[in-house]
């Protein structure tokens, strides 16, 4: 966790790169109960017009949240988070998987009626240089100065 006592608009969060493999998709399917074959079968993914097996959208969303939780150091400080899914993360059937690059920046800092400071963080998730989430925003309670 970094020193968050002087967070200001424009501050960049430390970037994070995460590899997603087919094994990760199997583990996520087991944990979430989402066994849709587009997440494990190239044949089915292709038959519905996808370029290949894709990562679960909620997995991609969760990975993107990591850039915020690792920055703030306390996942409980994140009280709001939302995204729009814009394009899939295609996960090849190899040992390397797909590289998802995550970053974030503070777009607003406010003080609530209770005196609590809140940072609004714009999150970016990219795969093969293209954004996979839009309107990805987290709101985080900051420690008191």
Q: Key terms for this structure?
A:
alpha+beta, 6-stranded antiparallel beta sheet, 3 helices, 145 residues
Verbal overview:
- The chain starts with 15 loop residues before the first strand and ends with a strand.
- It has a domain at 16-20 and 56-141: Hotdog Thioesterase (Thiol Ester Dehydrase, Chain A), CATH 3.10.129.10.
- Strands 1, 2, 3, 4, 5 and 6 form a six-stranded antiparallel sheet that branches.
- It has helices spanning 22-32, 42-47, 57-72, and strands spanning 16-20, 78-85, 98-111, 117-127, 130-131, 133-141.
- By secondary structure, it is α+β, with helices and mostly antiparallel strands.
- The chain is elongated, with a radius of gyration of 17 Å.
Helices, strands, pairings?
Layout: E1 16-20, H1 22-32, H2 42-47, H3 57-72, E2 78-85, E3 98-111, E4 117-127, E5 130-131, E6 133-141
Antiparallel strand pairs: 1-3, 2-6, 3-4, 4-5, 4-6
Family: Belongs to the enoyl-CoA hydratase/isomerase family.
Domain MaoC-like: 16-94
InterPro entries: Fatty_acid_synthase (IPR003965), HotDog_dom_sf (IPR029069), MaoC-like_dom (IPR002539)
